[in-house]
Fold:
Amino acid sequence: MRAELGPADQGVAIHCAKALTVDGEDRIFAPATILVKNNKIVYVGARATPPQGYEVLDASGLWASPGMVELHSHIHSGGFGDTNDMVVPINCDFRAMTALRPGNPLIRRACAGGVTTLYGIPGSGTSMSGFGLIYKSKVDATFEECVVAEVGGLKVAQSYNPERGAGDLGQTRAGLSWILEDAADRAKTLRASGVEDLAHENLGKVMTRELPVLIHCAGSDGFAAAARMWQVKYGTRCVLSHGCFDAHATAPYIVGAGAPVNAGPRTVDVFSTRDGRITGTAAKYLAAGAKDLSLNTDSPVMPQEELFLQGAMSARYGADDYLMLRGCTIAPARVFGLDDRVGSLEVGKDADIVLHNGSPLDPRARVERVYIDGVLQYDRQRDGQWF
Amino acid sequence: MKKMKLHTTIALVAAISAPTFAGETMAIRVGRAETVTKGVIEHAVILVEDGKIVVVGEDLPVERGIPVLDRPEWTVVPGFVNCYSRLGCDSEGGDDNSPDVMTSDELWPKAAAYKEVVTYGVTTLGLYPAGNGISGQAVAVRPLGDTVEEMLLKDGSYVKIAMRSDSPSKRRISDAFKKIAEYDEKVAKAREKFDKDKKGGSKKEEKPEEKKAFDPAQDAKPEEKDAKKDDGFVPPDADAKLRPWLEMRVGAKRGLVTLGTAADYLHFMDALGTNEFAYDLRLVLQRESDLWYVLDKKTYELDVDGIGDKKLRCVVEPLLTVTQGTMRTRNLPHELHRAGAKVVFIPRNDSLPDHKAWLPHVGEVVNAGLPSDVALRAMTLEAAEVLGVADRVGSIEKGKDANLVFLTGSPFEATSKIAAVMLDGEFVHGEVNQ
Amino acid sequence: MRLSTIAACVAVVFCTSTFVAAPAWAQDPAPAAGETKSDKKTEDKWVALTGGDIYTGTGEMLRGATILGKNGKIEAIGYDLEIPKDAKVHKVDGMRVYPGLVAISSQGLLGNAGGEFDDTIDPFNSRMVLGLAAGITTTGAGSAAVKLKRFTVDGAVVNERLYSVFSWSGRNPRTKSELREKFAEAARYVREFREWERKVKEQKDLPEPKKSGVDGTVLSVLRGETLAKFNASDRDDLLGIARLAQEYGFRPVIEGCQEGWTVADELGRAGARVILTARDRRSKDEQQVAAGGTSIENAAILHKSGCMVSVTPPTEGVDLGGLEGRDIRMLTIEAGFAVRGGLPDKAGLEAITIVPARIMGISHRVGSLEVGKDFDVLVTDGDILHYKTYVQWAFVDGRMAYDKEKELFYAHIRPRPQAELKVDAGETPRGDAPKEGETKEEKPEDKKDDKPDDKPEEKPEEKKDEKKEDKKD
Structure:
């Protein structure tokens, strides 16, 4: 049995009241035991007696859930700032990883809120603002210890922010689209012809689906345009982020085109429908048949640690609670190709485990412990309550 | 007091090609007359003499020698009455509590607008005083005339009272009734003294003095005069700002209370309390008006009677509104009618293009459900009631001013056009050949 | 010019008891244009909610009980109550019944009202509906406590003067020392006055101590006539206020109070009444050695130290911009965050009910369900602090002020079984309006045939709307 510890192995056994695995079969074990060997989960299931050598944690009043995954976050540098170089619209050779301040206060609080994996990206001030990094919210770690992927994916801003006001190219949607397509086409051609071009190297990987791309697009026009360009035309592994305001009106088209939606930070729309109703946007995407709908905070627009509240609010406005838990965990992991490591409590995955004293979506239920890669990062009783 | 118009404008002279029959008798034979008060008359004949309507009926024989205008393709309706306008007026208003201000003081007969609105069928205008709060008294005019006297139909028409959800608005109303109460007390005391003096056989020296001292309602009824003679008591003089209130209290004058929101209505009712006076409402319709909340008492269990319960007359724009925050259309004029209120229409805006489009605009509300007879009444007789001139204009009936609008079809049909307009028996617009 | 027709004198019967001749405008006031006074027979108005689980807000819960209201007040709570025949009875089996929430502060729920709320309140504005939908039936507005009473402008104000606001913050020590002097001066006067009161019984000609130079507002605080309110969050300021309060014997109201948890004992000793936002975030001043910054545990720690704790959300107005969960409509969520920080559930509910009511001096009327208090009652479909719970009905002064299914905002979300969203009677889609004379009389029997009872009638209306919009596009 893989769960047996060797002499050099570290082992933790967590006995909890409930384990929300969020796995493919949506299994929930109550009561449950989770075994962590070194950095991975080696057992999750019904209450069991751990093999010899495991450090046993009795968390029998607590619920275990996978660490949450955030795809739209700007807190890697410790807050706003360090988001955009505003000189030229295309910065596809930029990397946000250089801005990372591991374990900065915002990251620490994110951890205490149960958010363990983040895609840290540049802002939306330019059309292609660079490549984001994927990192974990370890509270005290070096760059190497917390970074999952230095180049995690591209950040594109379709419209509603990259518009250039100085009269140069990119003042209109037409100009913005040309800028994006010009860069994308160039990268595609270069890659196809085998020409080495450092500036377009990573962009080329986006075009050949080696890297995902997160697209900032809000409002129905930008949302549909993004799906048309990045999903339909280029067939990239795109994720449409935001989808706020009236964008939910395009939900059937977006879903039909097969583009995954990463909704937030706005979770409701009041003004566009003009029917007097407060429309929950997540509910609208789900109703249109969206698969792997994920949620974001656009932190620090909404505090990173309140990612769960985006799920709670979406549920309040008509979306299913459990799907919203998926939207904060496995769904974003899947659409960004991280589901082999994070997003659910499954054997073989990174031991990113959050223990709450209640439902992970309930603001009243506090996070008691957070493990990342099997290592205890935050313990409310030991560290005091950070959030 | 208002400044008189000083600047000059070149007056447009409407070219009237038709013969006029002022001071004469003429008969008009049309396909249909919508009289407002006497129903619809097919094959109607209207006899006009000295600017007045003398006979209206179906297929009446016309005496030989009387000129006849025969237009079986036309429909005739009463001249339109816009009771709420500032056309041709330019004063800016002053004190927030000036019910004694007269709009007639700024009347300027040469304003070009008057000549133009006549061509759109408007034969009576009510001009209201500018300003906030209680800004003064309106004047009803015929929009043609070279002098103020020629234009004047009724001076000292309604008193304009602006009501908002604020303390000053409410205080103006409650203060007025406080003053009335004080005055009543004064009268009671004077009466007591008068009775005492009378008993004691004292002379009534003050009487002629007091008679001069105030100017009671001009349209006092004859029977009231008789009652007066019996006694000889004349109540003490009232303040100029109080007099209009005393008149409104007894219905000798009406107020026109402008409201914008449902809350304004409740605050108005609150300020009024158990006091009463004669008034109509000017409801300022906005796209998202919430006035439908106060149509009746029952629906939302109001503490007070709703606008419809009180059968109030409401001056509104011909406008369809929506429920707040939605695209759900409401026909507030129709809702007012259904609730029991009396609808009065005015053009959407006080501009000449909106006077021109007045009929089609009302047509939109009719198309959305308001009965057309109610709509026509709202443009004519009800508006005349607001101005206190319903005895003279607003319907086609015997004895009224011959203000007529001739249309090429039913009033609210999109294809109908104004063919001719008659004002006091004279054709003032349109090609009229006999 | 004016027409000055001198009318002959006119006389009619005048309204005073003696017959008096009067001019036209002084006639007997005749009712104008159809106005009639309705006879106001004051009959008792009864309302009853039966079968709900009643959470009184005082810590008790009565399962499947009845709450009875009479003329806007709570008449009885319990079982087997005799319900008068003419009572409006609402069966709320399976639902929960709570006291109306009290927002210690909010903006916009009363329309554009300000200052004299009796004269300016807008009881039809949509923000009031949103406030009631959030469970708020009473709110602090400026320095007044006002109820969210719909459809009436009468009796909304509960308390006109809540606090006197003082400044005790910032780096400028002068304002602090000046305030302290004012308190010293006022305290001296109070002492002298008491002394005089005592002595004047014997020495009748003893002059009353001079009041000049004594700050009237401070004096009213010391006399307990008004509450002193401070806006302060820094540890040092909070300590200063606590000391001032203890020295001069008053209980301060402190809004903000972000670093309160670091000096909770001091604030507790001063009997502080705290208004805080559980989610406030502020980092510690790095120069300071002592603990600082915000803590999610703030509410819990202050509560434990004996302070009265009320919570207010990050945004006190209505924000419909889409960033949900932070505005006044989510008052319960903010209480939830206080619970997250360790505040007991009961205190969490109290922080948005009885505690703010106490702070505003209106707890004799609102804040809990007790006999004699105002019938401000919520019916919810679950735990009121749960994020998915909706207020189904809200009653203010015994009158239904909100029904989730009858307002557009939330009616479409998890509609109540058999609930129907009816388009308002005035909303007749274009062309479909019944013309006069051909009014469609809807007979109840016909309706039943058309639509089975178990299906919500919402859908046909919706379709109509959609069609209409399509045409416009």
User: Anything to note?
Assistant: Chain C has four domains: 43-99+369-419, 101-159, 167-353, 429-472.
